[in-house]
Automatic annotation (TrEMBL):
InterPro entries: Oxoglu/Fe-dep_dioxygenase_dom (IPR005123), Pro_4_hyd_alph_FE2OG_OXY (IPR044862). Residues 159-255 form the Fe2OG dioxygenase domain. This is Fe2OG dioxygenase domain-containing protein. Residues 30-51 are annotated as: Disordered. It comes from the Eukaryota. It comes from Penicilliopsis zonata CBS 506.65. Keywords: Iron, Metal-binding, Oxidoreductase. Belongs to the iron/ascorbate-dependent oxidoreductase family. PANTHER family: FE2OG DIOXYGENASE DOMAIN-CONTAINING PROTEIN, MYND-TYPE DOMAIN-CONTAINING PROTEIN. GO terms for molecular function: metal ion binding; oxidoreductase activity. The keyword Transcription regulation does not apply. Residues 41-50 have a biased composition (Basic and acidic residues). The lineage of its organism: Eukaryota, Fungi, Dikarya, Ascomycota, Pezizomycotina. The keyword Oxidoreductase applies. Coiled coil: none annotated.
Length: 447
């Protein structure tokens, strides 16, 4: 690729700033509360029909050697199936929860101290779809971005697949920082629902790119259902529980194929976004890669995919600012690909001196990655993740996710080999100037 002129580089720098702004302003987590009818605070008249209130809920679980299910009604009232003794039975019937380090499941109470029931051994009368929770998450974490061009991204919907019940008990329950292991390449996040059971401590802390949000559920824990959802690539932790039992249902949030009669979440037209005007101005005029080229932008999020599904699945699961950028490129009529990018020995071959991009990053490795588990990770990566070189890309941004990619591989809530997170990049192919004609380009130039 010839060295692009300074004017083009100046525009690229502005574009990069705009992309960074988009990243800073996008959300990575959200949460809410559902009151329990007849418990705590004032009773609202419309309570029974409200989306934000629930009747008491029942949990059923099986125990070895018994033919009938155990039952617990929450919140605790002290009568029937809703007693401290029933709750104690639940705690006792849970098995210790492990966590994943590379391809191994590890039991280490200093890292995670919790009980668990697998999804096939319990049932509850609660479902997030009954309370508008999925719609709320969809609006924040999965906005629809559409345009009238042929290549638009179809509306996407979220479903919540029940994964586990966990009980974190005082005075020592906790789960140190980790990233949830992807269970499929369509998973974009996790939903945690905290059931009404009194506890203190146990804040859930969620982080993404230096931003932190904490969910403190303790003060309303006895009388409400509280929930939080976050993107899969967010690092999170549960601080130590001091007293009581923090009971959670966890769900995998999965992008489902769009249905015909689904109401879309709010739709943003990419052409209304400042990035669109900026890019349009750049590619519609001479001076921007006139001989053609490829613009490369590292994604702001890491994505779960397996090496064989990456090419197909990555565009479908794009999140937040990455989705915005992808849609803008698409609506300009450009060919866009989203591909995982692998580093080799701490070096991404993404140097672009004109944009002050070095390509080298300094991974901050977690203790679990450095110590005994590193070799198995290195082996898994080499064996399952072959790669090819893609030269001639004009990089607009630095790699974003290397530090996190190491974390992802190193410690999750479950072991993993075939499906992993990796740092992805969006590649937009800019045709040579004389080829920027035809229907879609006319549209672009005339607007
Ligand atoms: O209970 C929570 O708040 C989060 C649980 C969690 O991080 C997990 O199960 O992976
Ligand atoms: Fe987690």
């Amino acid at each position: 690729m010839l060295t692009p002129p300074e004017e083009f580089v100046g525009k690229c720098r502005k574009l990069r700033n705009r992309i960074e702004d988009e990243r800073k302003s996008s959300s990575f987590t959200c949460g809410g509360t559902i009151t329990i009818q007849g418990h705590g605070g004032e009773q609202k008249e419309a309570e029974e029909t409200s989306l934000h209130s629930s009747p008491s809920l029942n949990l059923f679980w099986k125990t070895a050697g018994k033919t009938s299910a155990e039952k617990l009604t929450l919140p605790i009232t002290g009568t029937g199936d809703s007693t401290a003794a029933r709750l104690q039975q639940l705690v006792q019937d849970c098995s210790p929860a492990t966590f994943g380090v590379g391809s191994k499941d590890i039991l280490d109470p200093d890292y995670r101290r919790a009980g668990k029931l697998d999804a096939d051994s319990f049932a509850s009368t609660f479902h997030p779809a009954d309370f508008g929770i999925l719609e709320s998450i969809q609006q924040v974490l999965l906005p629809s971005i559409s345009s009238d061009l042929e290549n638009r991204l179809p509306f996407r919907k979220l479903t919540a697949d029940l994964y586990k019940m966990n009980v974190y008990s005082g005075p020592a329950g906790l789960f140190r920082r980790h990233v949830d292991t992807p269970r499929s390449s369509k998973q974009i996040g996790s939903l945690v629902v905290c059931l009404p059971s009194e506890f203190s401590g146990g804040q859930l802390i969620v982080r993404h790119h230096g931003k932190t949000v904490s969910f403190d559920w303790s003060s309303s824990s006895g009388s409400t259902i509280q929930w939080a959802a976050f993107y899969s690539d967010c690092e999170h932790e549960i601080e130590q529980i001091s007293t009581g039992h923090r009971i959670t249902l966890t769900y995998n949030l999965v992008v489902s194929e769009p249905g015909y009669c689904d109401l879309p979440s709010p739709v943003v037209d990419p052409k209304s976004l400042p990035l669109y005007a900026m890019l349009k101005d750049m590619v519609a005029k001479p001076g921007a890669l006139d001989k053609g080229g490829v613009l490369g932008v590292f994604c702001s999020h890491a994505y779960a995919h397996s090496s064989t599904t990456a090419e197909h699945s990555l565009p479908q699961i794009l999140k937040g600012s990455d989705l915005v950028l992808y849609s803008v490129f698409k609506s300009l009529g450009l060919q866009v690909n989203v591909l995982p990018v692998r580093e080799a020995d701490g070096f991404y071959h993404t140097e672009n001196p004109q944009m002050d991009i070095g390509g080298r990053t300094h991974p901050k490795r977690d203790k679990y990655a450095i110590d005994e588990y590193e070799d198995s990770l290195g082996y898994a990566t080499k064996r399952y993740w072959p790669f090819y070189r893609l030269p001639g890309v004009f990089w607009l941004t630095e790699p974003k996710q290397e530090e996190m990619a190491f974390s992802y591989l190193a410690y999750g809530n479950e072991s993993s080999v075939e499906t992993m997170y990796s740092c992805a990049a969006i590649f937009a192919v800019i045709p040579p100037l004389e080829k920027r004609h035809g229907e879609k380009w006319k549209l672009l130039v005339q607007e």
